[in-house]
Amino acid sequence: MKLIFELGTDGQGTDLLPECDVPKADPGPFARSSAVRLPQVSEVELSRHYAALARRAHGVSDGFYPLGSCTMKYSPKINEELASMREFTGIHPLQPEDSVQGCLEVLARCETMLCEITGMDSMSFQPAAGAHGEFTGLLLIRAYHKSRGDEQRRKIIVPDSAHGTNPASAAMAGYEVVNLPSGPDGCVDLDALKQAADEKTAGLMLTNPNTVGLFDRNILDITKIIHDAGGLCYYDGANMNAIMGIARPGDMGFDIVHLNLHKTFSTPHGGGGPGSGPVGCKASLSRFLPGFLPNPCGSRYSLKRPPNSIGDVKAFYGNFLVVLKAYAYLLELGKEGIPEAARNAVLNANYMMSLLKGHFQAAYDRPCMHEFVITLEQEKKTSGISAADIAKALLDHGIHPPTMYFPLIVQEALMIEPTETEPRETLEEAAKVMNQILDEAQKEPSTIHLQPLHTPVRRLDEVAAARRPIVCYEYPQE
């Protein structure tokens, strides 16, 4: 398939703009020395090009998308309609407060609902995505210790099953990352945690249920160990979909939480972004939150910056339209629907795991939460069948592969998250396909190394793509 830059001919275009009826501005020293080199294509070529790209992409609307730890749930289209209303899209962040009272009310109401779900007291919507929320939460931890003159706390404890962004965010915030090994059950090793937590511990980053899809039964002991050492507990909300409306991070002992609105609260992410990673905290930390927060003044709202705010982590008030979609989702499901969605996510994951048993080996043989991990370690040793082989073969069946080789503590891992929006029939068909692929591969291992056979591109050189990516178009030499 050709790139858009390789289509069209000189002189073609799609613009039919009238002559300029105002004086042209003089850009002065900012004027370009040469014309912008943009594709010169007709409207029909442009339309066909993006239609062809869409046919090569795979989204939730195309088929099963069990990408572990990503919560690729279906997003109701009514959320998109609401976020497309002119009354919301036509505003500007610099408008006077009196002219955006509806938008401020949305932020305030959404904050109230999400604080109730998480057990927090205040929330800022400024962070643009999950990792951005992590970084913001770590800045809150730093501000808290600094305010107490306790700046020798330079260590952040991160489990080895954590998302890769956790240690990266801690390092970006200037902390020393302490890697915490998991126990044989896939959860936090309490003895290792007790040894790691000391007077230099600033905090712990953890998600519960964790990255292998298990709820840590010792969570109250974990947060108490950190608090007794003088540190704070940060909750990575990536796996909130399993417990929303049922268990609250604040009740588990967490002081700070970020949420992925573009995952748990049904707003498209990936190619359908942007994201939103609001950060909530307990009342003792509210004064450090970034940005301006909506403040009720009678029947009106004003914007107020917390007294000891860490400043701004993004321009203005975050990705407002994403918050709006999440607000619509919260209103649609309500107090009864939110926990029902979480229960169905857990039910779907356990059902699919049961359908795969007898063929695939679960990394941890116990009931899971919203996702589970299977391991191809034994098949790799005996038949040369890898996790990547199974994932590639699924492409020929119109199924997006699960997350591969993550978490790192499981060898030849496939992490599967069906989400609550998939019907039973889809799970049964997907499990049937996976079991069939493994059966055929075990009979004739060489065949699976050739798959996929029917996709637009076959197996790519992933090492070369990672090390020598082509990220911009090189015009031919004239």
Automatic annotation (TrEMBL):
Pfam families: GcvP2_C (PF21478), GDC-P (PF02347). Keywords: Oxidoreductase, Pyridoxal phosphate. Residues 341-443 form the Glycine dehydrogenase C-terminal domain. Residues 34-292 form the Glycine cleavage system P-protein N-terminal domain. GO terms for biological process: glycine decarboxylation via glycine cleavage system. Transmembrane segments: none annotated. It catalyses: N(6)-[(R)-lipoyl]-L-lysyl-[glycine-cleavage complex H protein] + glycine + H(+) = N(6)-[(R)-S(8)-aminomethyldihydrolipoyl]-L-lysyl-[glycine-cleavage complex H protein] + CO2. It is an enzyme of class 1 (oxidoreductase). One of its GO terms (cellular component) is cytosol. Its cofactor is pyridoxal 5'-phosphate. InterPro entries: GcvPB, GDC-P_C, GDC-P_N, GDC_P, PyrdxlP-dep_Trfase, PyrdxlP-dep_Trfase_major, PyrdxlP-dep_Trfase_small. The modification N6-(pyridoxal phosphate)lysine is found at K263. Its EC number is 1.4.4.2. Gene3D superfamilies: 6.20.440.10, Aspartate Aminotransferase, domain 1 (3.90.1150.10), Type I PLP-dependent aspartate aminotransferase-like (Major domain) (3.40.640.10). GO terms for molecular function: glycine binding; glycine dehydrogenase (decarboxylating) activity; pyridoxal phosphate binding. The glycine cleavage system is composed of four proteins: P, T, L and H. In this organism, the P 'protein' is a heterodimer of two subunits. The glycine cleavage system catalyzes the degradation of glycine. The P protein binds the alpha-amino group of glycine through its pyridoxal phosphate cofactor; CO(2) is released and the remaining methylamine moiety is then transferred to the lipoamide cofactor of the H protein. Belongs to the GcvP family. C-terminal subunit subfamily. This is Probable glycine dehydrogenase (decarboxylating) subunit 2. The lineage of its organism: Bacteria, Bacillati, Bacillota, Clostridia, Lachnospirales.
